[in-house]
Design goal:
Strand order of the largest sheet of chain C: 4-5-8-6-7
CATH topology of the largest domain in chain B: Ubiquitin-like (UB roll)
Strand order of the largest sheet of chain B: 2-1-5-3-4
CATH architecture of the largest domain in chain B: Roll
CATH architecture of the largest domain in chain C: 2-Layer Sandwich
Distance between the termini of chain C: 35 Å
Shape of chain C: globular
Shape of chain B: globular
Order of helices and strands of chain B: EEHEEEHHHH
CATH topology of the largest domain in chain C: Uridine Diphospho-n-acetylenolpyruvylglucosamine Reductase, domain 3
Structural class of chain C: alpha+beta
CATH class of the largest domain in chain B: Alpha Beta
CATH class of the largest domain in chain C: Alpha Beta
Number of helices of chain C: 13
Helix content of chain B: 25-40%
CATH superfamily of the largest domain in chain B: Beta-grasp domain
Chains: A alpha+beta (about 725), B alpha+beta (about 180), C alpha+beta (about 350)
Number of domains of chain B: 2
Order of helices and strands of chain C: EHEHEEEHHHHHHHEEHEEEEEHHH
Strand content of chain C: 15-25%
Number of strands of chain C: 12
Radius of gyration of chain B: 19 Å
Strand content of chain B: 15-25%
Helix content of chain C: 25-40%
Radius of gyration of chain C: 20 Å
Largest interface: A-B, 51 and 44 residues
Oligomer: heterotrimer
Largest sheet of chain B: 5 strands, mixed
Chain lengths: ~725, ~180, ~350
Amino acid sequence: MLFGATVRSPIPHARIDTIRWQPEKAPAGAFCLTALDLPGPNGVLLLNDDWPILADNEVRHVGEPVALVAAASRLDARRALAAVEVEYTPLDSVLDLSEADPENPLAVIQLEHGDVERALGASDVVVEGEYRTGHQEHIYIECQAMTAWYEPDGALVVKGSMQCPYYVHKALVHALELPPERVRAEATVVGGGFGGKEDYPSLIALHAALLAKATGRPVRIAYDRHEDIVGTTKRHPSVIRHVTGIDEQGQLMAMDVDLLLDGGSYTTLTPVVLSRAALHAGGVYRCPNVRIRARALRTNTATNGAFRGFGAPEAEFAVERQMDRVARAMGLDPLEIRLRNVLEEGDELPTGQVLDDTTSARLCLEKAAALTDFRRRWSELEEERRQRADGEPMRGLGLSAFFHGAGFTGNGERRMRSPVKVALREDGRIEVFTAMIDMGQGSAVVFPQIACEAGGLTEDDLVFAEPDTARVPDSGPTVASRTTMVIGRVLAEAIAETVELVQAWWRGTKDLEEDLTVAEGAVQSPDGSSWTWREVAASYVKEKGSLEVSRRYEPPAWQQLDEETYQGVAYPTYGWGADVVEVEVDPDTLEVKAQKVTAVCEVGKAIHPTLCAGQIEGGTLQAVSWGLMEEVKMEEGRYLNDRLATYIIPTIGDSPEIEVHLLEQPYEGGPFGAKGVGELPMDGGAPAALAAVENATGIWADEIPATPERLTAWQEAGDVVESIAGEATKRSSSED
Amino acid sequence: MPEQTTTLELRINGERRVVAFPTHHTLLEVLREECGLTGTKHGCELGECGTCAVLVDGRPVLSCLALAAEMAGREIQTVEGLQEGNRLHPLQQTFADLNAAQCGYCTPGVLMTAKGLLADNPRPSSEEIREALSGTLCRCTGYHKIIQAVEGAAALSAGEDWTPAEEVLHGTRLPERGSE
Amino acid sequence: MLRLPPFDFHTPGSLAEVLEIVAGEGPETRVVAGGTDLWPNMKRRHQRAERVVSLMAIPELAGIHAHNGELALGSTTTLEDTVRTRVVAERFPALARAVASISSPPLRNMGTIGGNICVDTRCTYYNQTEEWRRSIDYCMKEKGTICWVAPSSPRCWAHTASDSAPVLCALGARVEMKSKQGERIIPLTDFYRDDGIEYLDKAANEVVTRILIPDESDSTHCRSSFWKLRRRGSIDFAVLSVAAAVWTDDGDRVTDARIYLGAVGSRPLPVTGLAECLEGKVLDEETVSEAAALARKTATPMDNTDFQAQWRGVMAARYTEAALGEIAGLEPRALPPPHLL
């Protein structure tokens, strides 16, 4: 086995003049590979292939791979890096959205429902706000790692930590110009993903594979934490402007949203992230006139890609803070403004989708408000703030309401028609083949549960194949909160069909009149005879040969999105939620301590309540810490905090109490009514945390993370709630 | 410079084994690479995440910052030694029952640090649990199930009955549609 | 995985052997105790060594003993053992609190008190990977010529990162060092130099053996406090710390007072003019806030760690108020930092 390492650009934007490999300076036997040595196209195929495997002529961000080395030991690989000399000519660089060129976007989405200009003109009050979010780093505790080798028959195998074995497979087939059957991608147990192992594993797999091909030896590449933070994708920073028109009753008349995402240097998954951001930009509110203009711009920073929530947390942060701003302008409390506008069954989204009876925004809001006595406590804390002497402790309460489209956006599931295969084994067990992986979200528990329930089986009657592309069908990526809802459903169908076929055959062989029941692994006839599933199924295989059943996901016929106008049905259903965050703020330092979060989530059906609550707890903590503490700091495009002591995620001591309340409003398209849940909790924590800071301090916080330094600066600049009411344009008075 | 190597008898999980390794290798590297005990994970290698914690003479230490060469005569315990025969350690039992491990990657470090805590303080308060685990990062959970699992293991170790609390969920079932 | 470069490693059983090894060697030989500072620094390649000599096999260097009007902390006493030693917690509570705030519990089982007073100075431009530092042509502290925190400065501004140092300075502790030539004992305040590179008055052939804290600084004679600012209540280094010690007469009037600020200079910074300001006065809101204003003047943090520099300067006043307020028994107005909870 050889060990690979990566030469990376130290400059955000530069022309590569020369790359010189000096083997005499490297350990004996070390090997180097550059873009010139690639056997096929120099692109990682995701949506397109503009992401270079190795930079060719030009680097576009710090940390971009420029060359690969391999050597006999990890230490030698590191030494070999020093034998690669790269000369650059620096070019002008664009380091954040404020410098980015709006005319050369990575992606654009526009949608309009109603007539926003006219409705803004007719509104009684118009409120404007601008909201900013920063990069977020995934910090899965297991860094990216991949091993590649060639089998004796010449097939290429890569094995490592990945959410999407078929994305990796596709990228390898494309770049190495291999027939699909000559490539295998095998996912190991994944030590955390959060989206970070959706796109990036394709690149590291290509690196390992190219080195394995060039050296003829197995090659392993494992990143240390510095390299993982510097090299891999992150959550998109955003700048989102809202102009909102309201009538005298506090009803939304118009929403005009201009949404910018920082896509970084290459396309990766940015257009799809932008799409989800745009589709969530109006929040959970009914508004007859909505215009959303969403653009992703290029900067010379690392490519931004998939991260839990996929654009929706950025969009919902902005709209939730804007609703708080509207409430201030109207003199309403945060609950009231939401209750007056919250989406209900029969209402339309900006896409024109008419919401069905799985719409639970009001239910979640009311539940969260009741659980926390929100209205009374919020008003008391407002009063306390106004009366408070300098230096007294500051407490606050903040509310958010949110939703998350479950499954792939738009027509994605229709294009995929994801298959699940199940097969009877000789021992009577059913083997299940899907490409889904467990990265901590719990599919390894939930899938057997679904299969047992659907088939009347026990876990001992089931075997789950490892997610290896040589064995499992392409049931799509483990992303987008789709695993349980979409693949779980197909799994249930495939199992039910298999059980039905087997029991019907058994009934025939036994000359039984009536249907048999299968429950808890036993096949029973009404006359009281009983057999174990395993013996019945084993007999089937013995008599009839193997049985394989494949089922594909068919999205509901009414789920159609016009990808030009963005009108139609983007998601078949939505998960809904409301968070109430309680904070205490240090009057001297303005450090914020989140004390408690009450998270109410409507999930369709909690198939495994403990796991489901675990997802909500963990996602809520990630969301709150994104809002309060997580910050990727850069200087001239270089990361200043590429380690766990400086890129701060919460310790056990920073975690607030999180009280999870699960509501169930079953969605008939999901297994037993389940909706997707993995990303939902990421959408509400940050805006609620900042709203709580506002309630505690009076500081108007519109940018995350709301660090004490930023809060101090805003306070000194007079960004306080009292200024908002005056800012709102009173159209009625000015135009009279 | 030729690399210095060390040959030592290490005591790991009650077994003695003679291991030869490059002297500059950390205990983490020697456990994973020379001894094949890959249950001990790593997240930063700089003492900033707690993932690689093992017990040395009963106390949690960071194996990424300890040289294996200093381990002569010391009792090393890793996650592989946690269960006794076919019986799960109470911590393993409660972590499984509560799903206190999600992706499971930080879990070996959490388990060993918690074991060190319980040896020192058999009935820790939740504050003491927070303090003991304050050096271990977990990105999946909100940490609450970890705290509950350590409390549960303390109860089980004391011979008390323990079952995971149902009320963790505060679940609200809506009426079946059509049933009203 | 980040890995150490190869080196020769020695674990002598006696101090004499250690002193023999370090006597004839240059900077390529380093002494290590707990390793929690040296190993990360070597992994990131900003410290180098061809030979490393461990102190951990020398029994007499560990342990805490009271004698001759002093409490002697053996240099290889682990941080956890220091905190758990009842005499430390009872007689020097600010020291116990400072040591209990260092990094995280498992690290405190490894790191030592001697190592902590010698811990390397830190800086945003120094505590980075080799590749990162190469991309800025390194910095003055290691391989380079420029201090990137203050590019026109002739000196390095890396900041002290020890939590025990400001407390031990405030308590008037002394440090004992031994070499083949003999031993010397100097006040800890002289042990630290105002330079990010040559931050210790310690020769390469000298080994820190003990830290001596005088009885007149214990809780029967003096009240002390330690407050530490950082993002989280664990793992993180201080971005500011305030160690205060106050001696009073029978009428509660201040007879002596010392405050040392950590993490805002290359050494623990004494708040100048403090004793004069407080002498003969009772600690109350007014005197505490006067002292805090002095601390603000003393603290001129550079932009070389987490949190904005200017904000850290403002916090020096607030934390001084909190630390002195705690000593004076005033009603706390600030939330205690997480490690005090």
